[in-house]
Amino acid sequence: MSYVVDGEPNRSIDNMTLPALHNTGVLYRRILSQFPQDISLAFAYGSGVFKQQGTSQGQMEKNMMDLVFAVDDPVTWHTMNLLQNRKHYSILKLLGPAMISSIQSDHGAAMYYNTLVPMDGRIIKYGVISTECIIDDLMHWKTMYAAGRLHKPVKLLVQGDNGKLRAALVGNLKSAVTASFLMLPESFSEEELFLQIAGLSYAGDFRMVIGEDKSKVANIVNDNMEHFRIVYSNILRDCPQVVYKPQQGKLEIDKSPEGQFVQLMALPRTLQQRITKLVDPPGKNRDVEEILLQMAQDPDCGAIVQQGISSIVKSSSITQSIKGIATAGMWKTVSYSSKKLLKMWKGWRRKKSVSQTS
User: Fold this and answer.
1) Would you state the pLDDT for residue 157?
2) Three-point CA angle 92, 96, 102, nearest 5°
3) Distance CA 149, CA 202 (A)
4) Which of 99, 92, 86 is nearest to 36 (CA)?
5) Are 48 and 107 spatial neighbours (Cβ–Cβ below 8 Å)?
6) Which end of the chain is more exposed for a tag (fewer CB within 10 A), N or C?
7) Res. 282: pLDDT tops 80
8) Exposure of 191 by Cβ count < 10 A (0-12 exposed, 13-18 middle, 19+ buried)?
9) What 8-state DSSP symbol labels residue 281?
């Protein structure tokens, strides 16, 4: 099993990544060199890194490059970054690093974004999150904001020697598979599974109503099937509840009440709590295990899991987007939003054109 750091294979973690673009190792190293180096995890994702359906190589390299940095000490990191890259910040820079760190950790999805930053011939957006917060999200799906991005193939640029973070990265992938199993029929294709996984973090996201290309999930999966296979194949082979036939691209899972109960009990804690809130009448106060045992026998089990995920994503996507207006500044917010709306319109036109010619 392998992943990529700065474009070079490494064998020390499950398949989190693949080379995303040819000859990009130097570009990523050049960009990373312009930030404070105390980073426990850094990854690049999105349409500026991975090819998506309907996007040429040239267009992709014009797209904004999305990055996330997890740091052990956000106050120190922002202090150093304000010295090196003060222009990246909105007017909030006047509040100082302690307040920026507080805004980062205490509001939205515990992520602080600087966006529309020109760097080495590309436009980048980078989010900063504490190592503690990203581990919490990966393990428990508290907001599914960072966890959702890491359900899909990413290009891992920095991976520190943090055993808890390493385990949380793999656990997050296993949780994505488990939640998807509960929402799929007894037999399905690899593509259906990967579409389900890629769609988890968009369920309930208000930006999918306005501001995002409606074909976004399919665009992510269709041109990156091999990336998804490499990320998930070992997890699927090792899972005792699934029959995985990689040569045919087919899977069969245990949909018995016993099988579904095992899957429900393996879900992240926040999702279990949201499900409990959805199905337990007020005043009953039954324990989680009792509720999930009952739910495992419910024909609507998958739909309830979907509702639980949507409720997590909806609240974090709204609060993070509101925070984004302050962290980006008004001009950048308008510019960024207009580009998103243009992308959505182009996706709609492309889909309409395909449906008319078929």
Assistant:
1) 93
2) 80
3) 10
4) 86
5) no
6) C
7) no
8) middle
9) P
